[in-house]
Amino acid sequence: MDNLLSEGLNLMVFGMGFVFVFLTLLVFSTGVMSKLVNKYAPASEPKPQRSKSNPKVQSAGAGAKNDELIAVMTAAVHKYRS
């Protein structure tokens, strides 16, 4: 019985050690890859935002869509509660 328990503990220690070493290497390799990508392929600069040409037309269309959405949501809640 003692032999079986010591083998189990030995297997547990080796298994946990292997996982710890693997995860440590994974963290370091991910950090190195991140630095390499940032060095050789830096992020592109953000595109400038375009100004809205006619905000009244866009807001009127959005208001109609919002009204339709509210009506659909109200009907769904009413059907769910009944």
TrEMBL record:
One GO process term, biological-process aspect: sodium ion export across plasma membrane
Main location: membrane
Membrane-spanning segments: 12-32
Cofactor(s) listed: Na(+)
Record flagged with keyword Ion transport: yes
Function as written in the Swiss-Prot or TrEMBL entry: Catalyzes the decarboxylation of oxaloacetate coupled to Na(+) translocation.
Record's protein name: Probable oxaloacetate decarboxylase gamma chain
Source species: Marinobacterium lacunae
Name of the gene this protein is made from: oadG
